[in-house]
Amino acid sequence: MSDEPEEKFLICVPASTPPLFADDRLGTCCGCGVTLRFRPYHGPAMTPICLPCAMPLLLEHGIEPPDDRTVAEAVAYFAKPEGTA
Ligand SMILES: [Zn+2]
Questions:
Q1: Domain for residue 68, yes or no?
Q2: How far is the CA of 57 from the centre of ligand 1 (A)?
Q3: Range(s) of the domain holding residue 64
Q4: Dihedral (C-alpha) 55, 59, 60, 63: value to the nearest 10 degrees?
Q5: CA 53 to ligand 1 centroid distance, Å
Q6: Residue 55, helix vs strand vs coil
Q7: Higher pLDDT, residue 73 or 35
Q8: What distance in angstroms lies between residue 47's CA and the mean position of ligand 1's atoms?
């Protein structure tokens, strides 16, 4: 059955990462509660989730990342030094 509404997750970077755009929005990870940064064009129907929380979900549901480079870029983005607070 595919009638059940599917929760749409939005994989975000932590708010502690340097902002890429001035109009970035902030949200809360549904998994661990960390504050996340995301682009404003993602609607409220999307549930923010951080990458460390999202990966186990993706693997649990057997979902392959659509583009390995995207995931690699996200991981690289996470790994960036936060710089001076
Ligand atoms: Zn999380």
A1: yes
A2: 11
A3: 8-79
A4: 110
A5: 4
A6: helix
A7: 35
A8: 11
DSSP code of residue 72: H
85: in domain: no
Model pLDDT, residue 18: 84
Q: What's the gap in Å between 34 CA and the centre of ligand 1?
A: 6
Give the distance (Å) from ligand 1 centre to CA of residue 33: 6
pLDDT in tens, 60-72: 877 765 566 666 6
pTM of the entire predicted model: 0.61
Q: How many angstroms separate the alpha carbon of residue 48 from the centre of ligand 1?
A: 9
Name the DSSP class of 21.
S
Q: What one-letter code names the amino acid at 59? A: L
Residue 14: strand pairing partners: 36
Evaluate whether residue 57 is within a structural domain: yes
Query: How many domains are there within the chain?
Result: 1
pLDDT tens column, 24-47: 889 999 999 999 998 887 777 788
Give domain status of residue 71, yes or no: yes
Q: Is pLDDT above 80 for 23?
A: yes
